From TrEMBL:
Coiled coil: none
InterPro entries: Acyl-CoA_N-acyltransferase, Acyl_CoA_acyltransferase
SUPFAM superfamilies: Acyl-CoA N-acyltransferases (Nat) (SSF55729)
UniProt-recorded name of the protein: Glycine N-acyltransferase-like protein
Species per Swiss-Prot/TrEMBL record: Steinernema carpocapsae
Length: 376
């Protein structure tokens, strides 16, 4: 039987969750909640079985949402809930029963969520996918990103703390400031600006400032659970070693200020980063018993949206009385791509002055541009 841990008891379970690397993400998440570093979300903790639990799950319910400004007048609210699952044993029958039991606790919450980001290993994911299909509430899988998990063992952490990291000539390390830097960071990582400010206030961050211009040219910060994430270097300053320095400096802060093992998830779509991390003296990749890389996923499940409901949301956004270009940006992960295409084509009859053309599909958002009819 599964059980839910009362929030008042989170701290007493930390020693049980401190299993590296099997439960590393669950442990880091709960610890940051206990220490007050996380207040940007609600947090629920579940285990299975009640005696000597081997499967754990954390359900994060965000406090902040992403508001997208469209045509300078309309806002769309985007909310993402996160389900983390990790296990100390990967026996098929145990995982099957464990996922079944935990989902009995959280199915009510899931049915009320438009979007759920699941972070789990492939074996757990197989069982979760079966449950999600049975629910039939989130039939759209709009992202399925395989990742490798990297962490620092005790020796690597000790070695890093002894390392003196120096910024190249003409640059300097700075702490990111919530008031000064939140907007540029949130724009780069596509995150709610208030959430970014909250993370910059409570979580470690590192920026590299160009002394000549005074501008931040590279940065990295932690997710709400202390995960090393959101690395960005402006294109003209890449291939100068700034990315590696920023990452290692941030890891030093994570060890010193958060008291947790540095962890990062690297997408399989970035083989160069994976290979570089494997060659590093400071990173260890999470492996299976047979020596292969442990495969984890970031998978997003969405509820079904009909074309009619899309029209009701987007119709007022596509009207414009001004000539020229107007940009509408919406995250693709909110609705299926084919629904966008059908919608855009159907909007052509709404006005004599403008037609609407789907002209750019990027990895993180879809853009719809309104053009005067004579330019089509």
């Amino acid at each position: 039987m599964a059980f839910q841990v009362p929030k008042s008891s989170f701290e007493s379970f930390l020693s049980q969750l401190n299993v590296v690397p099997e439960l590393i993400t669950i442990y880091n998440t709960v610890k940051q909640f206990v220490t007050g570093k996380i207040d940007e979300c609600g947090l629920e903790l579940f285990g299975y079985p009640h005696e000597e639990p081997v499967l754990w799950a954390v359900l994060k319910k965000p406090k902040y949402s992403m508001l997208v400004l469209v045509l300078l007048q309309t806002l769309i609210q985007l909310v993402r809930n996160v389900l983390l699952m990790q296990a100390v044993l990967c026996q098929d029958q145990v995982l099957k029963l464990g996922v079944e039991a935990i989902f009995n606790f959280i199915k009510g919450d899931l049915r009320g969520m438009d979007k759920v980001l699941l972070v789990a290993g492939d074996k757990i994911l197989e069982n979760v996918n079966i449950k999600m299909k049975k629910f039939a509430t989130h039939p759209l899988m709009t992202d399925n990103n395989p990742c490798c998990l990297f962490y620092m063992d005790e020796n690597q952490s000790d070695r890093l703390l002894k390392e003196e990291l120096v910024a190249p000539e003409g640059f300097s390390f700075v702490d990111l400031d919530p008031k000064r830097d939140a907007e540029i960071v949130s724009n780069a990582v596509q995150e709610n600006v208030d959430q970014t400010k909250e993370r910059l206030r409570k979580m470690p961050s590192v920026g590299v400032r160009c002394k000549e211009s005074g501008q931040i040219v590279a940065f990295e910060l932690c997710s709400g659970i202390g995960l090393i994430t959101h690395h960005f270097t402006f294109p003209e300053f890449r291939r100068q070693g700034l990315g590696r320095l920023v990452e290692l400096r941030l890891c030093q802060k994570v060890i010193q200020k958060l008291g947790i093992v540095p962890v990062k998830q690297v997408s399989r779509k970035s083989p160069e980063v994976i290979n570089m991390s494997k060659r590093s003296l400071f990173w260890t990749v999470y492996k299976e018993a047979d020596g292969s890389d442990r495969l984890g996923y970031y998978r997003i499940y969405n509820i079904s949206r009909s074309i009619d409901s899309l029209k009701s949301i987007l119709r007022p956004l596509l009207w414009s009385k001004r000539r020229g270009y107007k940009m509408l940006s919406l995250f693709t992960r909110t609705f299926p791509d084919n629904a966008y295409q059908k919608l855009v084509l159907s909007q052509k009859s709404l006005t004599k002055e403008y037609t609407y053309n789907l002209f750019a599909l990027k990895s993180n958002f879809i853009s719809i541009c309104s053009l005067p009819r004579n330019t089509m």
